[in-house]
Design brief:
nine-stranded mixed beta sheet, alpha/beta, 18 helices, TIM Barrel
Length: about 500
Amino acid sequence: MARIRGKVVVMALAICGALQAQAQAPAPSAEVRKFLKYDQPLIALTHVRVIDGTGGPAQEERTVILRNGRIEAVTDARVAPPAGAHVVALEGHSVMPGLVGMHNHLMYTASLHQDEEGHLPPPGFLVTELAFSAPRLYLAAGVTTMRTTGSIEPYTDLNIRNKIDALEMPGPHIDVTGPYLEGRGSVFPQMTSLEEADHARRTVAFWSGEGATSFKAYMNIPQAVLAAAIDEAHKHGRKLTGHLCSVDYRQAAALGIDNLEHGPVFTDSEFVPGRKQDQCPSSAAIAASWEKLEVSSPQVQELIRDLVAHKVALTSPLPVFESFVATRPLLSRQQQSMMSAESLRSHLAARAAAAGAPERAAKLEAALKKEMAFELAFVRAGGLLLAGPDPTGNGGVLPGFGDQRELQLLVEAGFTPVEAIRIGTANGARFLSRLDRIGTIEAGKEADLVVVKGDPSRRIADVENVQVVFKDGYGYDPAKLVASVRGMVGVR
């Protein structure tokens, strides 16, 4: 009897705790409510195809029950929904986990500002913070969690995260990366220069205290400074990724880096002849060093084995590379309508210049294909591949739209559609240590879901047909989110 009473007390406490947490959850602001399609506490998504994010086959004719911001159950569509549920009939639609963007930014290449000779005059390559438009576009595209993966305005990013979490503005959950950890010689005047290990440690410690949850090293960082940054980040329970050049992939893996961005074909300098310590070779030198290397070669296979052995995750931002290939499609009319006049002009000018160099376009296309082949081989060898579009470059990658394109390019690389969806959902959740909460469709997890018209498990392009995005159980209208920022990408 005492044992039964004890269980009753425990259950009562659990129920009280859940009710208290629900009562303390912030209510959506008037600004957020403008974009809500569904806000009922109990919702049944019926007659839907479930693509659960595990990489397994799609499940036909299912009902997904959402209660108080969580997935309560996934049942056979023939089972009646719970009493009082708001029923959403979704014949011909699919539900998949919310995307977890792992190379995303709240900034964008507003304009290249080149001079008459095609050079970047001082102060260099400037980017613009998109505090207003980027969060809305990410959410509209189905991105419910993202990592900023390098920040030029970390305080802005932190404040945006807090406002989104408080339901004061729409947007995804954000893993905020601290300011870039860069060495001397960057073309970006918005980045600091870290030349001493102690400076790197102080920077990582400070921004960890300010709320940054990850860090990113950049192209010119010296090896000793990178080692100190990695060590300090791990002391604070943070992970560190890198878009490297002065330090090669295997050197970074030996130092304990958690993640590498872009893939090696465009960034790994280890095969450049005569490379000097702590110096970043030119992009042309890196490209030339990879031109004659096949993914099946002993050198590249050894690199793959080394990365897998060190448990280094790779992020695939294929769209940013594709945007430089003149033979690839231009942005859709809808995407062009999202851009400011200056941003669109700048990007189209860059593409026109690239179109005038067919030999270079052919080399870039070959490099893109080789990068795809490397990513496929890395995963087949047991590596953890993440997804994110990197909306920078020549302005040809937009927040949200780029995340959808990334999945399509992963399929072009040789992954099946359900594998690509797993890379873009569960893999990111695993790296962020949140797979117990997000990344797959399972009972008990947060109701972060994307409803699309069609079947992306067979036709990956259907990921573009987003009808509703559920985040924490609230259903957002993507069309309204997109319409609210038309013409703003690049300026706001």
